[in-house]
Amino acid sequence: MIFEVITEILLLYNTPELYLEMNKINICDEKSVMKFIKNYGIPFNLSIQENDEHFNSNLSFINDVETVSVEMNALLFFQELVKFQQILRMWNDIVEENAEIMTKIKHEFENQATFNQRHQALFREALSSEEYANYIFNDSKLFLRGGELKKVYEAFKGNPDKLLELNKVGDELNNTWERVKDETDIKTIAFTYLNLKLKDLEAGETATRVIDGNIVPAMKFNNLTEVASFQLKQAIFKDLKLEECINCGALFEPIHGSQKFCSPLPGRKRSTCENTFNQRKKRERKNMKESRKK
Ligand SMILES: [Zn+2]
């Protein structure tokens, strides 16, 4: 069941830092996932139920079918979330000119291009698609992992068109690598790789709507990860530089130059992190005074 949701562009204005809140989710920590859901609702397939009330529900389900579909969506969401968080981290590391990470990115880029080139050569040698699939899955060690991946392997084996598609994706990566590999500025190489990665990130699509009898531009999103990815891309276009919150260590988008904490959550005036930090300081001062008295 796939529903399409037109998310009001308003959502973007109300929660301009949704993408950074999404970056804070630790998928190994249920509490951090629930904290996000409490503030923003279920992040995937917003319209699992057709009435909007469900959006802010406390995850209570009516029947088994619904529970399963919510669980499946959670899985899909985590998969997309991991991809999103990796790309955001990569972007931030490059902006901060982290030399070690940029060198790693260059190696990853090179390894992937070499891997592709080797397999494309095999493909051109006119092997059967089955042989080609064998090569790909043996060489990438995917085959050895069995289970789910075995199904993927079988699907590719029986579908030469899909293999050709893979080949084409590989072409773009190889060509791009060949173009930038001798570049002396490692930042350019890292950004080029990041740009390829960005293409994997679904970030909604442009659409139009009618408001007060006029056709106006709008964005169409299928889920909150797409909204977050859209915001991330905007931040990259704007060449923003994120800062680390001195309370929680998470990345935030400074609205003014002296900002030291995460921005306030939607609908709130004060930053939660700023409050927590100040209260802790106050407690510490109080404790210091008391210990001096003794
Ligand atoms: Zn913070």
TrEMBL record:
<feature type="region of interest" description="Disordered">
    <location>
        <begin position="272"/>
        <end position="294"/>
    </location>
</feature>
<protein>
    <submittedName>
        <fullName>Uncharacterized protein</fullName>
    </submittedName>
</protein>
